[in-house]
Amino acid sequence: LTAMGEPSMDPTISAADSTAQQDSLFSMMDVFLISLITGLFTYWFFFRKKKEEVPDLPKMQSVAAPVRDSSFIEKMKKTGRNIVVFYGSQTGTAEEFANRLSKDAHRYGLRGMAADPEEYDLSDLSRLSEIDKSLAVFCMATYGEGDPTDNAQDFYDWLQEADADLSGLRFAVFGLGNKTYEHFNAMGKYVDKRLEELGGQRIFELGLGDDDGNLEEDFITWREQFWPAVCEHLGVEATGEESSIRQYELVVHTDVNMNKVYTGEMGRLKSYENQKPPFDAKNPFLAQVTENRKLNEGGERHLMHLELDISNSKIRYESGDHVAVYPANDSSLVNQIGEILGTDLDTVMSLNNLDEESNKKHPFPCPTSYRTALTYYLDITNPPRTNVLYELAQYATDTGEQEHLRKMASSAAEGKALYLSWVVEARRNILAILQDMPSLRPPIDHLCELLPRLQARYYSIASSSKVHPNSIHICAVTVEYETKTGRLNKGVATNWLKNKVPEQNGSSSLVPMYVRKSQFRLPFKPSTPVIMIGPGTGIAPFIGFIQERAWLKQQGKEVGETVLYYGCRREHEDYLYREELARFQKEGVLTQLNVAFSRDQAEKVYVQHLLKKNKENVWKLVNEGMAHIYVCGDARNMARDVQNTFYEIVSEFGNMSQPQAVDYVKKLMTKGRYSLDVWS
């Protein structure tokens, strides 16, 4: 039975052979195990080592040169400055005021520098006392509903969290605000209060500029009392030097590579030819206008709906955000300035800062031509400020005209009154001043140095990204009016947009733009009722809101009451988005549509009158339904009247006194249930 004996060893194999076979088997096993263990150990060792090296990477990065010199103290010491003027600026005015104050310093034997708080470490304020006769001044604008400007956001955050000792800091604050807004000069007030709380010494009272009145006059009045206070605290006195000091020097380029010349770009050279995201204020996206239609059926005004194509831009927006557009000045105005000053506008030049240490090398992108500067970079349509008139006066060859300019630039009551009537109320821009003063012919390069930058214009977006992810809609009215001198003044952006014709290709239909985020947002829960109040072009964000609520309804979401109070002049003249609103109402998305036609009857009817008429329903939605209220449009009259109407409704139905009703509405604002998107 051989088969049964197979597993047994062959009886012929010797004992020695058996031992050798076992040894061989053992050594092979050893090699295998040792190799496996060695392999595993090697892998583990190197893997572990890599993990250990990871934390060292940031150390290597920190050795690299810093992106910017963030110590303004070191810069001041290096350049012999005593005064630093920080600015929180959204439209350029606060920056302009900061430059003027820093320039003033030389009259008192001091040296100043204007500084963007975004570029420096503001915790260094505690070290300012290291510099003799030092002072920090803050020109702070308030943006939106009491918010800091974009460039002052970090400074604001630092102030809120800081526990720094600023006992050696001397400071002064000038705020730029608008009294038609709820939170007038909130940023200026906060900075002034907080610096004192941290131990800083206020050397002059807080200045509160009001753009609804005369911001320029407010600044001059504050400034003329500010400098004597500086003299007293720092023990200095006026040197008597009043001469004009140029900040930039002109360099004319006769032989220049045109590929290195700016043609209207806001930041990077050739950025309009070679577009790269992300898109923002310094890198706008060139959007194609795909639709531009007139919204109104009659009347003198031109109300329009534009659609901007943002396909492939990676731009994202939410209903309630703002779109900023960079306009261009009217070529006929630019040409007239060139003719009056006898200049070849196509001359390529640079204006280079005489202060080599300054972060601001040029007043606008250089090199460029005078034509480009006057078209895309400089504000030539707003009445110039008094410092511009003061600097220009030296070029008037007629003594009467020179005296006229100097008087308007003075701080005397008579001079202020003259500036107010002759420049501000008459809406004289730089071209009108040159036309009305034949002997005033300044060098064009000095004029370009003095004029403020042309700013982006903001519009409430009139679409929802849920419905229109690849386009942004704008609703605007062209600005056009006759001045006291009989001239026809036109709004820069609206008239430029009006002429944007949709076409396949070509620059005539391109709009440089970017999106600015807003706090004007629909409630988180779609079931929350909303009350929207927006007469005229104030309807813009509500078109986006209603589109979004319709989309949510289509998704099967429960959507709360959507109530609109809209107003226009006449039903058959300027009733904007009439067909769209009727469709939304028919579909049941827009649950209430209340329209006030102010001029269709003897007595004017506005949105606040309709709110009063429906006061019981309004109170029920707010009190029981926890509705969110949104107001968009004119801040000066409409928003104020609407707010007063809410005080009345709350007082009547909530059985509250007037102060209690005011407090109730203010609390709604704090909780984000009463939102404003207003302009003056």
Report on the architecture of this protein.
- This protein has 680 residues and is of the alpha/beta class.
- It is built from 22 helices and 23 strands.
- It has four domains: 72-234, Rossmann fold; 277-327 and 456-518, Elongation Factor Tu (Ef-tu), domain 3; 329-455, Up-down Bundle (NADPH-cytochrome p450 Reductase, Chain A, domain 3); 530-678, Nucleotide-binding domain of ferredoxin-NADP reductase (FNR) module (Rossmann fold, 3-Layer(aba) Sandwich), CATH 3.40.50.80.
- It is 37% helix and 18% strand.
- The strands form five sheets. Strands 1, 2, 3, 4, 5, 6 and 7 form a seven-stranded mixed sheet that branches. It has a six-stranded antiparallel sheet with strand order 14-11-18-9-10-15, covered by helices on one side. Strands 21-20-19-22-23 form a five-stranded parallel sheet, sandwiched between helices.
- The radius of gyration is 34 Å and the shape is globular.
- 37% of the residues are buried.
Key descriptive features of the protein:
680 residues, alpha/beta, Rossmann fold, Elongation Factor Tu (Ef-tu), domain 3, NADPH-cytochrome p450 Reductase, Chain A, domain 3, 7-stranded mixed β-sheet, 6-stranded antiparallel β-sheet, 22 helices, 23 strands, globular
